[in-house]
Design goal:
9 helices
Length: 191
Amino acid sequence: MAGIKALAKETAVYGLSSIIGRFLNWCLVPLYVYMFPAEEYGVVSYLYSFTAVALVILNYGMETGYFRFASRSDNPQRVYTTALISVGATSLIFMALMSVFINPVSELMLLPDSKLYVWMLAMIVAIDAFTNIPFASLRFRKKAYRFAGIKLLNVFVNIGLNLFFILACPALMKSAPWLVSWFYAPLGGES
């Protein structure tokens, strides 16, 4: 019975951290809709439709494989290292290929004028695929609170950066451009 209670507790922690994170990110949607022109936000939404497929391809079942082989192995750290190197190598190859072939990929995705968006999405997906293995390791080692804490910290950093770049930087460009002009250059719209 203690095993079931522990499983239920861990499942609640993992589930709640995901639900809270997605809800907080969803709260940014009204800001996006208000701040971005419909055609720009449409491009972002269109690009998001590729993320799930790209993540499945870049992870190629390694997260599940890690759980399976780590639970059977007398050296789960070796299984972790192998999985991390494998996904890390394919993520680096993917990033390199996307950097080299960004023009044809953007055209194939029907976004020839949004190469920067396509490239940024590719980099984010590659990094996300790579970080799935350390998160799987935390789940394997039953570190539910650390897993949830890091996931929620990631969400708060993401929200903070969104608010900074969408609200604070444009305001600072008007009042004190010298503070942000060295790294912030809007790609259109209000500067």
